[in-house]
Amino acid sequence: MNTQKEIMTPCDTATSTHSTARSLHLSSLLLMASITCLAVLSELMPSGVLPAMIEHFSISQTQAAGLVGAYAVASAIFGIPLVSLTVSRDRKKLLAVLLIGFAASNLMVALSPQFHIALVGRALGGICAGTLWPMITAYGMSLVPRESAGKAVAIIMSGITVGMSVGQPCMTWIGRQFGFQFEFAVMALLIVGVMVLCMMFLPHVKGEKRSRENSPFTMLANPGILLVIVLTFLGVGANYGVYTFITTLISTFSYPSVELAQIWFGIGSIISVILILRFIDTRLHLFLVSMFVLGCVAMLVFYSLHFEMVLHGAFVLWGIAFGSLSSIFQTATARQVRSGTAVANALQSCSFNVAIMFGSTAAGFLLETGGIEPIVLGASAIFFVGMVLSVCTRSYFA
């Protein structure tokens, strides 16, 4: 009987090794995507149960916006110094500390008998978020070749899309059925579970040595970084100003439910992440301009056309614009530097969170003085400005 032994050539061995490495990297990136999913849910959960929180804590609409604003303020204030301070730390160990902070933040809100304690809990979450967002993208990008950096960021940030399209409606349902306290407690437990998986499966990656090149001041002298910071402020401020009060938007236009709006919004977000994964490394500028255009169109529809079927489409368009935010801006930031990606992204994240603070606070003021219509109209104007600026600065994103 003839037997044949398969002989592995060096080429076969190399191919097998590269395939295994790609598989391991994809698994790590997907696990990081689960972290961004839970992180964005931690940030946005109040928007789905805001009326219940207002009633429970006996606070005004503007104070309720502070539950989103405090998160953003803390993230903006502490993000850059903490990222600079921890830039040389092992990424895996730092991630564990941040996830513990996220879990504690949600647990504080769940158990809080008073508004001020919940506010502190939200601020703690913001501190962790300000450090997490720039760190986790730099962590993921360090696992892949530079030419695949955009795709790595898109995979990691796809967790945001899943969070907004699937997680947010589910968490809103849980909050409405069992109370917002139970909703935040569930989130704390989920974060602990993901932290355990991260400790088991994510690789250790050393941080960068502190140097002049990765100093925040050096980054701020880069015109490309400054441009991304401005565009981030415009895009995020417009989006979050409206999204913070999505429950009011729904009730004003007699739309069936928040959950249905979030489903259509989520469909748009899923479409955006599919397109981002396929094309972001070659079509970054097109995505940037399209995000502002679609956001502007969606807001104008909300302002002028209140037919249910048309509103379905508007939520899809808004989801496409909103769902691509983080991937576009983080990738755009990374394009402007060759080192110090985490610090550069920290500056972009600071702009992101300052925009959330200003957007939600300004929207809360407009809501109490003029209703939801001025918020929507103002957002459309901001999107238009962002569109014009992004069209005029193509060379930075080509």
UniProtKB/TrEMBL annotation:
Keywords: Cell membrane, Membrane, Transmembrane, Transmembrane helix
Record keyword Metal-binding present: no
Domain Major facilitator superfamily (MFS) profile: 20-398
TM helices/strands, residue ranges: 26-45, 65-87, 94-111, 117-140, 152-174, 180-203, 224-246, 258-277, 284-303, 309-329, 350-369, 375-397
Keyword Transcription attributed: no
Its membrane topology: Multi-pass membrane protein
CDD domains for the chain: MFS_NepI_like
A Pfam family this chain is assigned to: MFS_1
Compartment list: Cell membrane
GO MF term list: transmembrane transporter activity
Matching PROSITE patterns: MFS
Assigned GO CC terms: plasma membrane
InterPro entries named in the record: MFS, MFS_dom, MFS_Efflux_Transporters, MFS_trans_sf
Predominant place of localization: membrane
Matches recorded under PANTHER family: CHLORAMPHENICOL EFFLUX PUMP RV0191, PURINE EFFLUX PUMP PBUE
Protein name: Transporter, major facilitator family protein
